[in-house]
Amino acid sequence: MRKHQYFFLVFLLVFLLPACAAQNTERPEPASSAVSGAASSEASAVTVSPGADSSGAESQKPPAGESSQNPPPVSRAAQKLPAAPSSRSSSSLSIASSLPPMAAPAKPMPPVTAKMPQASGGSVFAQNGAEIDYSNAAEGYIMVRYSGSATIKVLVYFNGGSSYYQYNISGDGAYVTLPLQSGSGSYRVRFMENVSGNSYAELCSTVLNADVSGSGYPLYPNQFVNYTRSSAAVAKAKSLCAGSASNAQKVAAIYRFITGNIKYDYAKAKSVTAGYLPNVDSTLSSKKGICFDYSALMAAMCRSQGIPTRLVIGNTGAGYHAWNEVYLGGWKRYDSTFAAAGQSAGYYTAEKYY
In what residue span(s) does the Transglutaminase-like domain sit (predicted)? Predict the structure, then answer.
């Protein structure tokens, strides 16, 4: 009995062991190594090639009728996985839009109309043929006139002082503009009549109060800086300053013109007499003059362009002299007479302003 059992066990081993070995040699294709197209949907018998290496690469037998030269299936290692999208940064960046370059030159200043004094008739003193219109004293000037045959001088005092400004007035009845150089305060105006030689007696006088505002007299013509809107000097200044973008540019253009075109008149300097008054249009046309003419012309041209300008008379290292002070954020001295000659007058001591 035991002998039959032994043979039965041997028989089972002979038949069952090859079947188990055949089952172990069949490995299912991994799901991740899918073959594209219809081949992936068909069942295929897969066998281990005798020459297969230990890397686990598998070969698939080509269907009947197809060439064995077809490329082998792509291994899992050779397959490209889809690229993962990059993660977005959580921080924000401020990006400003840049404007195109737009730098522009300064625009020329608008045209200026020269200021002219007026005898408005609102406030007037009149006596013995003499008249003072101080209606516009707040602008820094008064207007006086005299009708008669006497030789008249007008003296102007400030705040009760003993010093005065002196002006010669004709008897033709025409208004003459006089500056109130000292600004706001009390002014005494005296008409003095010549009685003999250098002796004068008071014809009449009055005291007036002025509350000067703004730039005052340096913007208006007066007896020493005399011009009108139709003056050639005003027209020339307008032409010179047409493209200027600032008062500084205007002053530079005027100063450059005067120093480059007006020559000193040495003959006139020897013959000039007391009481001489400049004529700005004559200086412009003749292109020559003394220091009084230089400074009057520059003052007229600058004032007509709305630039406060003083005519200053005083002592210098070169003698009794006239020059200008121009307001450009502060008072600045200009001496066109000596600049035209490429020289300097040395020191300057102002005495009178007009």
Answer: 283-338
User: Are both 310 and 347 inside the same structural domain?
Assistant: yes
* 245 and 347, same domain (yes or no): yes
Residue 266 lies in a domain: yes
Is the Cα dihedral 229, 235, 241, 242 positive or negative?
positive
- Residue-range definition of the domain harbouring residue 201: 124-215
338 and 247 fall within a common domain: yes
What sign has the CA pseudo-torsion 236, 237, 239, 240?
positive
Could you give the CA distance from residue 213 to residue 206 in angstroms, rounded to a whole number?
22
β-pairing, 288-289 with 263-264? parallel
Please report the pLDDT score of residue 14 as a whole number: 53
Q: Which amino acid is at 329?
A: G
Q: What are residue 164's DSSP bridge partners?
A: 157
Here the CATH number for the domain that contains residue 348 is: 3.10.620.30
Nearest to 203 by CA among 275, 146, 137: 146
**Residues 270, 256: contact at Cβ < 8 Å?**
no
C-alpha span between 350 and 354 (Å, rounded): 11
Report how far apart, in Å, the C-alpha atoms of 32 and of each of 36, 58, 60, 79, 84 are.
12, 14, 16, 10, 18
Q: Which residues of the chain are modeled with pLDDT < 50?
A: 1-2, 10, 20-69, 71, 74-78, 81
Instruction: State the total domains in the chain.
Output: 2
In order of 261, 262, 284, 297, the CA distances from 287 in angstroms are: 6, 5, 5, 11
Residue whose C-alpha is closest to residue 305's, from 76, 27, 112: 112
245 and 164 co-located in one domain: no
pLDDT of residue 92: 85
SS3 labels along 42-92:
CCCCCCCCCCCCCCCCCCCCCCCCCCCCCCCCCCCCCCCCCCCCCCCCCCC
Q: Are residues 174 and 265 in the same domain?
A: no
